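Fig. S4 source data, part A: sequence.
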Amino acid sequence: MRNTKFSLNVKNARTVGGASYITTSGAYIGKITAARIYDTPKGATMLALDFESNDGEKAHMQTCIYKDDGTETFARAILDSLMTVFRLRDLEAVQGKYRDRSGKEQTGYFFKELMNKPVGLLIQAAPEEYLQGGVIRNMVRLNLLTPFDANTRQNAAEILDNAEAKAVDAKLKNLKDKPLKKLPPEKAAEQCEPSPSSASYDDIPF
C-alpha cells in the first residue's frame, strides 16, 4: 500500500460540492463575471467585482472610487487600469439584474465591457477578524492591486508605453498576505465564552 496517511487539503475539499474561493495573495488569470457600480447611502461610489479564475476559484472585491463629496479616490486608477487592459477608451454602465445575498432580485448598473473576457488580476489577501454571534472569526478581504493582460502579462503602464511585461512578476516575487487585522480591544471584549470544540483554524470547522 503506497499511501496510508493523508493530511487535509482544504483547497481540494472546497472544490467538491461547492465553490472554491481565493484566500491567498497571487496573480490570477480568469474573467470578471460581474462588474457593478453603485452608490452608498452617504453618496460614495463603489466598484464591485466578481472574478473567477481559470482554475474555478472565485473572488469578490469592492473598492471606493469616488468619495461622498464627489472627489476621486486612489482606487479610481484601478478602473482606468482595467479600461487600459481591455483597450477601452470609454466605459458606460448599463442596467442589469442581479441577486443580492438574500437571493432577492435587484436592479443594478454594470460595466458589461469588463465582463467575461480574459484578464489577469494581482490580488493581495487581507485577513481580518470580525464578531459574529459573540464569537471572533476570521475572514479574508481581497484587494485588487494590479489588473494585467492575460496573454502578455503587461500592466496598464506597460501597455500604454508599449513596454516589456516585468512589473507584475516583479511585484509577485515580494507579494505577501497582509498581517491579520485584529478587532479593537473593546470589540474583542464582547466575545462569548469560546466553545470547547472550536477549531484551531477558523476556516476548518472541525
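Fig. S4 source data, part B ends here. Confidence is low (pLDDT under 50) at residues 192-206.
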